[in-house]
Amino acid sequence: MNKKLKQLMEQNHTTQTELAEVAGVSQAFMSYIMKGYKVPSVAVLKRIADYFGVSMDELVD
Predict the structure, then answer these.
(1) Cys-Cys with 14: which of 9, 10, 32, 55 at CB 3.0–4.6 Å?
(2) DSSP-derived secondary structure for 16-54
(3) How many Cβ atoms are within 10 Å of 26's Cβ, its own excluded?
(4) C-alpha angle 9/36/50, rounded to 5°?
(5) What's the whole-number average pLDDT of the chain?
(6) Burial class (CB within 10 angstroms; exposed 0-12, middle 13-18, buried 19+) of 39
(7) pTM here?
Protein backbone atom coordinates (compact mmCIF):
# COMPACT_ATOMS: atom_id res chain seq x y z
CA MET A 1 0.00 0.00 0.00
CA ASN A 2 2.74 2.47 0.84
CA LYS A 3 4.14 2.40 -2.73
CA LYS A 4 0.75 3.24 -4.22
CA LEU A 5 0.16 5.89 -1.57
CA LYS A 6 3.53 7.53 -2.26
CA GLN A 7 2.78 7.48 -5.99
CA LEU A 8 -0.61 9.16 -5.47
CA MET A 9 0.93 11.74 -3.16
CA GLU A 10 3.59 12.61 -5.74
CA GLN A 11 1.06 12.83 -8.58
CA ASN A 12 -1.19 15.11 -6.54
CA HIS A 13 1.58 17.13 -4.86
CA THR A 14 0.26 16.15 -1.44
CA THR A 15 2.46 16.26 1.64
CA GLN A 16 2.37 13.72 4.42
CA THR A 17 1.07 16.41 6.77
CA GLU A 18 -1.76 17.33 4.39
CA LEU A 19 -2.73 13.69 3.98
CA ALA A 20 -2.70 13.16 7.74
CA GLU A 21 -5.15 16.06 8.10
CA VAL A 22 -7.43 14.64 5.42
CA ALA A 23 -7.27 11.18 6.97
CA GLY A 24 -7.90 12.47 10.48
CA VAL A 25 -4.72 11.01 11.95
CA SER A 26 -1.55 12.49 13.38
CA GLN A 27 1.41 13.19 11.15
CA ALA A 28 3.38 10.63 13.17
CA PHE A 29 0.78 7.93 12.54
CA MET A 30 0.73 8.79 8.83
CA SER A 31 4.51 8.41 8.83
CA TYR A 32 4.13 4.91 10.32
CA ILE A 33 1.58 4.05 7.62
CA MET A 34 3.93 5.32 4.91
CA LYS A 35 6.80 3.22 6.28
CA GLY A 36 4.60 0.13 6.56
CA TYR A 37 4.84 -0.03 10.36
CA LYS A 38 1.12 0.56 10.93
CA VAL A 39 -2.04 -0.45 9.08
CA PRO A 40 -4.76 2.20 8.86
CA SER A 41 -8.35 1.46 9.82
CA VAL A 42 -10.99 1.02 7.13
CA ALA A 43 -12.33 4.50 7.93
CA VAL A 44 -8.90 6.07 7.41
CA LEU A 45 -8.40 4.11 4.19
CA LYS A 46 -11.79 5.32 2.94
CA ARG A 47 -10.94 8.97 3.62
CA ILE A 48 -7.61 8.62 1.82
CA ALA A 49 -9.17 6.79 -1.14
CA ASP A 50 -11.92 9.42 -1.41
CA TYR A 51 -9.37 12.22 -1.30
CA PHE A 52 -7.43 10.75 -4.21
CA GLY A 53 -10.54 9.63 -6.09
CA VAL A 54 -9.59 5.95 -6.11
CA SER A 55 -11.18 2.84 -4.66
CA MET A 56 -9.89 1.32 -1.44
CA ASP A 57 -8.95 -1.76 -3.49
CA GLU A 58 -6.73 0.36 -5.74
CA LEU A 59 -5.10 1.89 -2.70
CA VAL A 60 -4.12 -1.41 -1.10
CA ASP A 61 -3.12 -3.29 -4.29
Answers:
(1) 9
(2) HHHHHHHHTS-HHHHHHHHHTSS---HHHHHHHHHHHT-
(3) 12
(4) 40
(5) 94
(6) exposed
(7) 0.89
The SS3 of residue 11 is: helix
**How many C-alpha atoms does 21 have within 13 Å on its Cβ side?**
5
Domains, the chain, in order of start with CATH, read 2-60 (1.10.260.40)
Contacts for 28-37 with beta carbons within 8 Å, 24 or more apart? 33/1, 33/2, 33/5, 34/2, 34/5, 34/6, 35/2, 36/1, 36/2
